[in-house]
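User: Hi! I'm working on a homework problem where we have to compare a predicted structure to a textbook description. Could you give me the structure for the chain below?
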Amino acid sequence: MPTFPAAAEVSPLPRAGAAGLNVPRSAVLAVLLAVLGLSTIWSSMHSLWAMWTTDALKSIGMFVPLVSLVLILRVWRSLGWEMDGSWWGLAILVATAVVVQMRDRSILILVLSPQWQISLPPPPLVVFAYGAGVVLLFGGTRLFRAALLPLILLFFVNPVPHIFNTLIDLPLQRASAHVARSFAIALGQPLSPDQLRLMFTPDFGMFIAPGCNGIRGAITMGFIALVAGYVYRFRWYAHAAVVAGAVLMGYVFNFARLCILVLYYIVALRITWLQNRAEMGDYIIGACLFLLGTFLLFYVVRRLSESPGQIKPPALNFTGRLAPASGPAFYPRFASLLLLVLFSSYGVARSYAYTHSGPFAAQMRAEQDAPGQFPARIGRYTLSRTWNENFFTGPLIYHWAQYVEEGGASSVSIGISPVLGSHDTLICHTARGEDPLWRDQLTLATASNIPVDFSGSFFNDGATQYLEAATVCSGTSCGERSSDARHIGFLYSKPDTHSLFTQEPQRPIPILLRAETIDTTLPAELARQQLMTTMRSFLSSVDLDSLTQPYRHE
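Assistant: Happy to help. Predicted structure tokens:
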């Protein structure tokens, strides 16, 4: 690999006692405590880890926190490991931990479009706030300003937001398939009519999956270019050009990979030994092209680093009083963060114990197949049947029960989800291509005479017209509100204050009610009013607290 000149760094201030690469004990303690402090945002880190390990497209995000940490330490060393921290950092950390706890016990979703919903606060923002708080707490405002780009890098822990998959990922998949198909046809190779499948024989061909559209390679190359440009202090226009060029090169090399793979398949038609090794051949072709692209990228980086006009001048020295590298002020800040970490770790450990061991874990496993626990009678309604709704992969979604009014005049179905947690049912409808004819906020009375907020929606699927009302119960309180506008809206519920202060690992329990009619000729407004009357009558006898009691952590 080519060698590079030493990168320009933030110009260090002369400091008495600075010992070159020697890291002071206080800095080591601060870094270790910062790693342990991830327990304060554990749910966000858990969701990110699940995303990194299950979505290959987003797996590069797991390297972002590590790279950000290395870059922050690099800047901190250039500043002589100064410990001129600010208590504002602790305020940010406490606020972040509280917001995460509230989010885990409620619903707050920003709906920008039917295809784009954001759970607030999103995990990238949480991770950024945590990193900024730690840097301010131990390093102070000087380190924060100098390490701003490594902190901003934390926003890329989710490198490909969901809206990117919808608007860019799938179109690129079709473009990649079109390029590969056109190349094969130009070589005189007949193919099947399926646009995403290139079948060279009825049993031998390739499928252009979303992972074949070059996004992973482009994101990886762009990430490398972003970090290299920062390390070598490129001017903004040179930095932007290198990143854009790296992303474009990732896409171009992916098209080259598909074309080479087409050549491989044509050769394999004559050498049958290669047909069973096509997947490994794809990996080898992709790895070689990525290695070539990396060498080209670093060649450009080296040439730019040798051009004085493309490099920013050394950072000016800051003026002002300098705190000692470690001093008495460090230990109170360290102890304060340690107390916050211990408090958060208690809640994480208790939640883990409930969900992975003991009677609750056994209950969770039994709930996958066991029917829900519903009373035989609710007011004038009698239990008719029960069933479970499961994902196609097996995990439980809802326990359902259908209640029929005396005389069979009407019926209402009620679903309770012991495993989903905070959940917006409209997202599932949108994923199935079902848009509501009506959507609004409902306030309905229950058996306890306490008004409960529901998110209501009305649908017509051609076979039935049905009204749905969704809410979420956290502890003994229930309620879910939605604020809908033409293009933007909110879906939210109130957190349970008892679980916030006691750290009891109670989970939100979504509840979904559904009343329907098979008379599709009935005007939508009249059908909605009739179904609303039925739902009000049923809910007036429902005790939501007793229904959710068997599924809460206590």
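For your comparison, note the following. Residues 164-310 form one domain. The chain is about 45% helix and 15% strand. Good luck with the assignment!
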